[in-house]
Amino acid sequence: MSGPMELAALFRPEIALALAALGALGFGVANRDRRLRDLVATGIGLGGCGAASGLALGAGELGPVAAFFRALLPLLTACALMLIRGSAPARHRPEQIALMLIATIGMMVLAGARDLLVVFLGLETAGLPLVALTALGAPGKRPAEAALKFFLMGALASAVILFGMSLVYGMTGSLAFDALAPTRFRDPQPPLLLAGLGLVLVGFGFKVAAVPFHLWAPDAYAGAPAPAAAQIASGSKVAGFVILTRFWIEAAHPGSAADGAGILLVAVATASMLLGNLAAIAQQSVRRLLGYSAIAQGGYMVAALGAGGAPAAGPVLFYAVVYAVSVLGAFGVVARVETETGSDRIAAFAGLARRAPGSALAMLVFLTTLAGLPPLPGFLGKLLLFKSMLGPAGVASSPSLWLVALAVTLSAVSLYYYLIVLKSIFVSGDPPQVPSAGPPDLLAAGVVFLLAIVTVGLALAPGPLLEALLRATGG
Amino acid sequence: MTPPTLMLLSALGGAIVSALLPARGAERSARVVALVASLATLGCALAAYVGFDRSAEADALQFVTEIAWIETPRIRFLTGVDGIGVILLLLTGIVGVACVLFSWNVTHRPRAFFAWMLLVIAGACGVFQSLDLVLLFLFYEAVILPKYFLIAIWGSKDREYGAMKLTLYSVAGGALVLLGVILIAWQKEAGGFSIPALAGDRLPLALQLWVFPLLCVGFGVLAGLWPLHTWAPTGHAAAPTAASMLLAGLVMKLGSFGILRVAMPLCADALPAFAPALAGLGAAGIVAAALVALSRRDLKLVIGYSSVAHMGFVLLGLGTLDRIGIAGAVLQMFSHGLIAGLLFAVVGRMLYDRFHTRDLEALGALGPGRALPAVTVIFAAAAAASMGMPGFSGFIAEVSVLLGTWKRFPWLLLPVGFGIVVTAAFTVRALQVVLGRTRPSAAGETPDLREPAPAPAEPITLAEKLGAALLLGTSVWAGIFPQDLLALSLRAIESPMLHGIVQTAEGLAR
């Protein structure tokens, strides 16, 4: 597949998104009526996402994992887009939509990449629009600071990845995933190659908000406009895990848990789990709480990859999907509360169960999923994830036992801070000042409802998705 | 569809219907829905109890339902009951109906109240009939949030503290169990998680020695295993009446059932190493909790600690690894569910809702016994049952446990006997202060025997009388005709699934 026509055929979903982004921007420039402009731009954006998803579903050239996630990512973006009507700021809506679509293109490229150079392109395409979106956030939430942190951290991660890539290229003469594997298991292992791989892996950690590139996450989650924050939390994270998993399995070929790169991942994961969970306990803002918990959740998944190797790929991707769906829904409810009360503090959620029983129940579903409490799908996800950390049956290694014990313990700790939010929703009375009720945002309410249904559906029948992902990853 | 499955569905369905009721007239409609749903669960439980085939050639596990759910890893909706499961389902049905009857006066957010309550009942139903390890754990953990909300929203003094403490303890226990489940899944994934199969084809001994403490302590947290029991008194005291009854009647049983159904059969080879510790902690719980109960003035705390003491008998019985001892533990689970439920109903619904105090002396000064003669009768009977008087279910249960203890750990009878005396002491003290003596007398002073006018109180309602009659009647029935319950448990203990437990112990004795 070298000719431009074949490439264009391969990139049909991305091209559809790019056209939709241009359409939304163009219509925004051409039209002065803000309401109409926003409405049409939203429509174009949703249409573009739908088209891209449909086109990607039919394209299996890049392998089953890539096909699945290239179809899923635009759908996640579409869900995030639907939160845009009520969210602050009201200006620059078409531009926001266009940026979200462009970021999605980058994520889809990431999901399908089989060469480190393409990965880098995808990372930048997915990263920069999200930085710009973060900077567009409501003035009271310090969006500029968040965007700057996001940008600097991303630039640093990019530099680390580029340096790692240059080492890898120097040692192997290629950047394609499949060319790396044979060199990697030469005996003795070239230390520079190991260093290169390590740098690339740690750099990917930026995308999934793993320590040490985690600092941007809580600020970006708190500062960005709601749809963008939802996209950063869901689609961007999923894309990060897809590329991390695929690179780890297809290019780095993890051997035993004692492998240097595996130990590096486990160390990164342990730090993320500890930091994310402990810092989340102290948060007063629900967005920041979700930001820190995202660091922790990423930690569980990275730990499984590092300790479990290839068999962990299926569970990790399953958990990533479950996580993305529920965190997206949680942001939907946060957006609603913000529109109503102007705040995302835990106290602002007080009395939500009386005010909006539907949203409250949906939040119960999302947060219990994130906490991994049965019967919601987060439980099954965590069970498989934690089990895969132990490696193949019969070969007990006590470090991985301790890793699982730590993960289970911290997961139990996490219930505490999710429960604090639920307590505010269900137990506390009405908030001090009753907010003025505007016209209901049907689009946002609809997407929250839909995501809650999907989450419950994944609890009742996790089989199809789980089977598909296990098969796709060869598990 | 089998009666146990139907029971689970009727509780779940009741919860959903109750949550979806229209707001208008919800006070009345919600409790009617809850009553209908809980009567349906009781009906199903009775159908299972009566329909359970007791003939010698019948299968030990009956009403088995198997529905494929997830292929890899192989997790199935696999349910069924043995004699022990039937007994506990019956308890679930009875306690459920009694809870609704004693919640007849709930007017604050009634739809949510009855929905959460029925979810707890559904979770208990699920645990008692699960034969798939993951399914059992799923139901076990699904109870955590409903009970949190029941206490945090409808509770009384210190409700948010009590609810959060209970939840954190439950989650911590759940985390230990989850670790055990992960270890089992890691070793035995290919064959699925059928508990009977896992009990037949056990883990390597080295791993059992790790898994058993995890499972036993994890489940033990909910069973009131000393010294991890401290959630129980505060949780019971903070909870609304129905939730106290559910906690003492069902939730604590989930823990002890988990030990008996999962921890012991799956790690039977590790039992000789740990059983003395389990029995010892059970005995310690009996003595320690009884002593603390003697020193408390809050009537609900007194009963909360007595609950822990009674659950100590269950753990002691399980720890004996003896047929009679384990059968006694099962009977004690059944008996304690009824009696503790009744005691909490008397204190929470009959006394606290009317006199707004649970302080022993303050209550005594109000003379509730004379104001409400029905309370005198019910409380006296419940106290007698709680002390293990013959004629009530507690007697035969405790005697069986003590018989088992005598065979295996005769020296433990000494502290346990002391604990029984202390139990009688604090029960009589509570009874005397609340119903008999009017006010405390300073030392040396002649007791004041003049009767002050009792505080006015609304009379005991029909719902309360029915609920009390249901619980007391069952306890008396089980106390006078325990043969069937004992035979059911003994049969279950002999079944292939649980046989490993007594087998290892007998190997040890030889």
In short:
The complex is a heterodimer of chains A (475) and B (510). Chain A has 475 residues and is mainly alpha-helical. Chain A contains 21 helices and no strands.
Task: Describe what you observe in this structure.
The complex is a heterodimer of chains A (475) and B (510). Chain A has 475 residues and is mostly helical. Chain A is built from 21 helices and no strands. Chain A is globular and about 70 Å long. The relative contact order of chain A is 0.09. The mean pLDDT of chain A is 86. Chain B is mainly alpha-helical. Chain B has one domain. In chain B, strand 1 and strand 2 form a beta hairpin. In chain B, helix 4 packs antiparallel against helix 6, helix 10 packs antiparallel against helix 11 and helix 17 runs antiparallel to helix 19. The longest helix of chain B is centred in the middle third of the chain and has 33 residues. Chain B is globular. Classes of the chains: A mainly alpha (475), B mainly alpha (510). The interface between A and B is large, with 35 and 39 residues.
How is this fold's topology laid out?
The complex is a heterodimer of chains A (475) and B (510).
Chain A: H1 4-10, H2 12-30, H3 34-58, H4 64-81, H5 93-112, H6 116-135, H7 143-172, H8 177-184, H9 191-207, H10 216-223, H11 226-233, H12 235-251, H13 260-281, H14 286-308, H15 313-341, H16 352-355, H17 357-371, H18 377-389, H19 398-426, H20 442-460, H21 463-472
Helix pairs in contact in A: 2-3, 2-5, 3-4, 3-5, 4-5, 4-11, 4-12, 5-6, 5-12, 6-7, 7-9, 7-10, 9-12, 9-13, 10-11, 10-14, 11-12, 11-15, 12-14, 12-15, 13-14, 13-19, 14-15, 14-18, 14-19, 15-17, 15-18, 15-20, 15-21, 17-19, 17-20
Chain B: H1 3-20, H2 26-51, E1 62-70, E2 75-81, H3 83-102, H4 110-129, H5 133-142, H6 144-154, H7 159-188, H8 195-200, H9 205-223, H10 231-238, H11 241-266, H12 271-295, H13 299-320, H14 323-355, H15 360-366, H16 368-371, H17 373-386, H18 393-408, H19 413-436, H20 462-480, H21 483-494, H22 496-509
Antiparallel strand pairs in B: 1-2
